[in-house]
Amino acid sequence: MTETTAQDPFELAQQAADVLRERTGVARHKIALTLGSGWGGAADLLGETVAEIPAHEVPGFSKPALEGHGGTLRSIRLPDGEHALVIGARTHFYEGKGVRAVSHGVRTAAAAGAQYMILTNGCGGLNPDWVPGTPVLISDHLNLTARSPLEGATFVDLTDLYSQRLRELARTVDPSLDEGVYAQFPGPHYETPAEVQMAKVLGADLVGMSTALEAIAARQAGLEILGMSLVTNAAAGISPEALSHEEVLEAGRAAGPRISRLLAEIVGKL
């Protein structure tokens, strides 16, 4: 089934949100988080888990395609009594399921009542000062997938897509946080050194295979977005070392406890 004949994406997101309300007993999730490589431990620090649901039991979601990514939707009661929805079931563009599937998580978050969307990822860094394990705030992005989650004559302003207000809030937790422009490539292959240099010329500081398409869909849905990257490796050509998924996982494991505490404290500020 092609995207043009598939179920309306907003109806599907509403169905997913209805199942979440039924299964969790939570009427509204104020904050939603998509936790990428290295960030998963933050969920355990946010508060009390109310429910954890296998992703494939919720309409529109499927089991993760990649080791190192979760496969559940988790409802967490925050200390202030609000609830957070942790989406451990990201669909990547390179899986070939289409941009509707990529955007389903953030659209479900909006349908579940979210006001804030926190998008995280593991990525390659172009700044040699950002050693593996460095968290970086996303200030803007380059969408190099040649696709959009928006359909038809849907014109959405992407100015301040990654909220400056939320970046400033994050710096009240850690003033040393740097920021940069994230470039989403289609994947699943890593970028060539020439492609990394192209991205650098275009203004990128970070390269990866997620986040940009989700952020566009989140803005369409009216969510305020905080984007954070974990530099898991130097991008191709920045370092002479070869790239590997194992390296990404190991960098995420090493930095996990520290960045999880950071993210949990930022959520606490919201």
Automatic annotation (TrEMBL):
Reactions mediated catalytically: a purine 2'-deoxy-D-ribonucleoside + phosphate = a purine nucleobase + 2-deoxy-alpha-D-ribose 1-phosphate
EC assignment: 2.4.2.1
Record keywords: Glycosyltransferase, Transferase
Residues given in the record as phosphate binding sites: 37, 69, 90-92, 122, 210
Domain Nucleoside phosphorylase: 30-267
A single GO cellular-component term on record: cytoplasm
Family to which the UniProt record says this protein belongs: Belongs to the PNP/MTAP phosphorylase family.
Pfam families assigned to the protein according to its UniProt record, in alphabetical order: PNP_UDP_1 (PF01048)
Protein name: Purine nucleoside phosphorylase
Keyword Glycosyltransferase annotated: yes
Binding site for a purine D-ribonucleoside: 191, 233
Function: The purine nucleoside phosphorylases catalyze the phosphorolytic breakdown of the N-glycosidic bond in the beta-(deoxy)ribonucleoside molecules, with the formation of the corresponding free purine bases and pentose-1-phosphate. Cleaves guanosine, inosine, 2'-deoxyguanosine and 2'-deoxyinosine.
Quaternary data: Homotrimer.
UniProt pathway: Purine metabolism; purine nucleoside salvage
PANTHER family documented for this protein: METHYLTHIOADENOSINE/PURINE NUCLEOSIDE PHOSPHORYLASE, PURINE NUCLEOSIDE PHOSPHORYLASE-RELATED
GO MF annotation terms: purine-nucleoside phosphorylase activity
InterPro entries according to UniProt: Nucleoside_phosphorylase_d, Nucleoside_phosphorylase_sf, PUNP, Purine_phosphorylase
Gene3D superfamilies reported in the protein's UniProt record: Nucleoside phosphorylase domain
Source species of the chain: Kocuria rhizophila (strain ATCC 9341 / DSM 348 / NBRC 103217 / DC2201)
Highest taxon of the lineage: Bacteria
